[in-house]
Amino acid sequence: MKQKIIFCILLNFMLIMLASCSSIREPDIVLKENGQPCISIPRSEDMLRTNRPFNITSTHIYQTSIRSYLSEKYYYQEEQYYVKAQECIDFDYHFQNDITYGIAFSTEEKGKGGKYWSADIRIVKDKDGNSQLIINNEANSDDIN
Predict the structure, then answer these.
(1) Based on the number of CB atoms within 10 Å of its own CB, is 123 exposed (0-12), middle (13-18) or buried (19 or more)?
(2) Which helix (DSSP H) or strand (DSSP E) does residue 125 occupy?
(3) 11 phi and psi, to 5 degrees?
(4) Confidence at residue 20, expressed as pLDDT on a 0 to 100 scale
(5) Residue 97 CB partners (closer than 8 Å, separation 6+)
(6) Which pTM does this prediction carry?
(7) What's the CA gap between 128 and 118, in Å, rounded?
(8) Around Cβ 79, how many Cβ atoms within 10 Å?
(9) Is 139 left (phi over 0), alpha (psi -120 to 50) or beta?
(10) Residues 63-73, mean pLDDT to the nearest whole number
(11) pLDDT, tens digit, for every residue of 93-102?
(12) Nearest one of 94, 116, 95 to 105, comparing CA atoms
């Protein structure tokens, strides 16, 4: 009995540690003047303001309504892709209005391992015809405007 309790405690501890190591981060997302989103690594990731480059290892675009990947790109050793904090990541995709997309990308830093970034987005037009960016839970809501 005592061994089962110790085993359960150790298992819970390992799960908590694993979950904290693989956290999903939220990128910065704003609309550019052309109505397309600028998806970037937040300035807070470069706290010392060293302007260091982040190695993008993959980008993904998923359309939630049809449950299908629209774009996936992997950057391998010979084709590395670097961006700095607050620099728009090139997803090479034209986002349409009124469609909910799941966007994600992964980064890798030497000696620090990888990070996974993810958000749901939707671009809608307001009553005046201006584009608005809706992010995460609100992007999945049918009650917009």
Answers:
(1) buried
(2) strand 113-125
(3) -60, -45
(4) 44
(5) 123, 124, 125, 131
(6) 0.76
(7) 30
(8) 8
(9) alpha
(10) 89
(11) 999 999 999 9
(12) 116
